[in-house]
Queue: 2 jobs
Job 1
Amino acid sequence: MTAVPPLLEARGVSKRFGRIEACRNVSFSIRPGEVLGVVGESGSGKTTLLRCISALMEPNAGEVLYRMNDGETRNVFGLSEPERRLLMRTDWGFVHQNPRDGLRMGVSAGANVGERLMAVGQRHYGNIRSAAIDWLDRVEVSADRIDDRPDTFSGGMQQRVQIARNLVTHPRLVFMDEPTGGLDVSVQARLLDLLRGLVAELALSAIVVTHDLAVARLLCQQLMVMRQGEIVEQGLTDQVLDDPQHPYTQLLVSSVLQP
Ligand SMILES: Nc1ncnc2c1ncn2[C@@H]1O[C@H](COP(=O)(O)OP(=O)(O)OP(=O)(O)O)[C@@H](O)[C@H]1O
C-alpha cells in the first residue's frame, strides 16, 4: 500500500524573539483528513508554531511544505505574496481564539461570510447571500441575524460566525488557536460538538492549538506535546493521553486528573 503523502510538512521550524526561543527545530507532518492537536502549558510556543506554519509569521529557520490544490508541493515561504494570500483565503482557514481577530465587527454577519467568497472572485449577490445564509445555518446562527453585526452577538455566536467565514470557501486545512477558549463551559461543549461534526462531514484537515486536553481528546486523532518551544512527545491522542511516555506529558495529564 502506498502511503498518502502529507498535506503539510514542517521541517526544523524555529522562531526566536530576542533571547526567547519560542519554538525550536519543530518537525511534523499532517495527512489529508487528519486533525492534529498541539498541547502544552502557557508560553510553551504553541501559538508561535501555529503562526509560523500558517504563514502569519516567518520563522527564523526551517521550512513549511504544502501540497497545493494542483498536487505540487511548495515551500509556503517560497510563494509570491499574491500566491500566499490566495492560499490563505481559499485552501486554508484560520480560527482565532478571539473572534475580534478573525471577524470584521463593523459589518454584518452575512457580509463577514460573503466577503470571503468575493475575495475568491464570486460576484453574484444572490448566490453570495444564499451561501452566507446556508453557512450561518450550518453553524446554527439563525438566518434572521444575517444583517446584524457580530459585535451584537454572544461570544459563542461570534465564534460560530468566524467558523462559517472560514469554511465557506471549502478550505482543505484549517488552523485553530484555542477555538473554544474564553467561552463558558456549556457554550464550549456545543461549539466543540459543532466543530467535530463539521470536521468529519467535510473531511477537513486541521491543526488545533489548545491547552485543554479534553478539547484535544474530542477533536484530534494525533497529538503533539510542546514544552519550552520543543515537541517532547507525539502520537495518537488516546495513546499519548492514556499512556504518556515523557515526564512532562505525565505531569500535564496527571494535573488534569487532580481534583
Ligand atoms: N511577539 C512576541 N514578542 C516577544 N516574545 C513573544 C512574542 N510572541 C510570543 N513570545 C514569547 O514566546 C514564547 C512562546 O509564546 P506563545 O504565545 O507561542 O506560547 P503559547 O504556548 O501559545 O502560550 P499561551 O497558551 O499562553 O498562548 C513566550 O515566552 C512568549 O512570551
Note: The pocket of adenosine-5'-triphosphate is lined by residues 17, 20, 22, 40, 42-48, 211 (CB under 6 Å).
Job 2
Amino acid sequence: MTTIAILAGDGIGPEVTAQARRVLEALDLDLTFEDALVGGAAYFAAGHPLPPETLDVAKRADAILFGAVGDPRCDALERRFRPEQAILGLRAALGLFANLRPATLFPGLEDASALRPEVAREIDMVILRELNGDVYFGEKGFRTAANGTREGYDVMSYNEAEVRRIAVVGFEMAKRRKNKLCSVDKANVLETSQLWRDVVVELSADYPEVALTHMYVDNAAMQLVRNPGQFDVIVTGNLFGDILSDQASMCAGSIGMLPSASLSAWSGANGLYEPIHGSAPDIAGQGKANPCAAILSAAMLLRHSLNQEEAALKIEAAVSAALVAGARTPDLGGTMTTSEMGDAVLAALV
Ligand SMILES: NC(=O)c1ccc[n+]([C@@H]2O[C@H](COP(=O)([O-])OP(=O)(O)OC[C@H]3O[C@@H](n4cnc5c(N)ncnc54)[C@H](O)[C@@H]3O)[C@@H](O)[C@H]2O)c1
Ligand SMILES: CC(C)[C@H](C(=O)O)[C@@H](O)C(=O)O
Ligand SMILES: [Mg+2]
C-alpha cells in the first residue's frame, strides 16, 4: 500500500491541494491519503505549526503532497511559531536538500507570460535550488549595540559537502537533459559563493560531457527575462533559488503554474511535492487560485517518489490539453474557478 501524506496548510493551500488529490484519485493507483495539519492551521488547532503528529505522518508516508503555509494573523508571532517554520522544519527534518523547480511554457500560455511570445516560447529549464543550507539555516538573531542601535543578522554559509551533493544532482540532471549546467552565485562579493564556485568547478572534472557556466545572480535575474531559452539546468543556493524561481514563473505564465519536488536523494524516495507559490491570502477563499502548480506537483510525486512515469506524463498531458482547450483561471487571463480548472484537467485525463 502506498501512502501519500496530504499537508494542505493555509490560505489557497487546501484549495489547490484538493484539486491535485482529485487528479491522483482519478488515476486508480491504489493510493491511500493521510491528512495532517500544518502551518497556521496547525498553530491555531494544536499550538505549533509542525506538531509532532504531523511530522510522524510525513515521515511514515511514501511521499508528501504539500499545499502552502502562511497566515497574516501569524506574522507577529515569535518566529518558531510562524507557519513558515513548518515547511522549513520539514525540509530540515527529512533532509530534503534538492529542490527541483521546472519552468516550461505550456502551449497557449504565451499571452500569460510577462515576456514577448517569441522569448517566452523558449523557456524549458529546471532551477535546482539547494534547500537545507544557506542564510535560511545559519545563526540568526536580533541584538542591540551599546549605543542602543538595533541589529538583525542571519549568517550565510555553505560547507563543501553541502555544495558537492547539490552540484552532483545538478550535473546528473544536466546529463539527462541538454548537458548544460549554469551555476548561479555571487562569488564576486560573497565567500560562501566563492566556495560554492570552487567546489562546482572541482566536481566538473567528473562530468566532462556537461558544459558548465557560472553566472552572478544579478545577471541571472536579468538573463532570465532577456533570454530564458539559454538555460537548461540552473543550480543555485537556497535564497537565490527562491527568488529566481518566482521570477521564472512569470516568464512561464503564472506563479500558479510552477510545481516543485524536494528530495533527499537523487532517487527521490520519500520526497515532498509542492507548488512554488505561497498561501496567497489576497485571493484565499475566493476560488481564484490556479491549481495547476499543485496538480503538476502531484505528477512530480508520481515520477520521483513512486516511479510512475507513465501516470506522471498523463497528468502533464492533461494539464497541457486543458490549457490548449482554453481552460484559464484569472491569473492566466480567464474566469474559471479553482475547481472548474480541476474539472478541466480531469476531463482531459485519458
Ligand atoms: N512553500 C510555502 O508554503 C510558501 C511559499 C511562498 C510563500 N509562502 C507564504 O505565503 C504567504 C503569502 O506570501 P506571498 O504573497 O509573498 O506569496 P504568494 O506566492 O502566496 O502570492 C504572491 C502573489 O501570487 C498570487 N498567487 C500565488 N499563487 C497563486 C495561484 N496558485 N493562483 C493564482 N495566483 C496566485 C497571489 O495571489 C499573490 O498576488 C506568506 O505567509 C509567505 O510566507 C509560503
Ligand atoms: C515560505 C518560505 C519559507 C519558502 C522559502 O523561502 O523557501 C517559500 O518562499 C518557498 O519558495 O517555498
Ligand atoms: Mg518562495
Note: Residues 12, 16, 68-70, 84, 87, 255-256, 274, 277-283, 289-290, 293, 331 surround nicotinamide-adenine-dinucleotide (ligand 1) (CB under 6 Å).
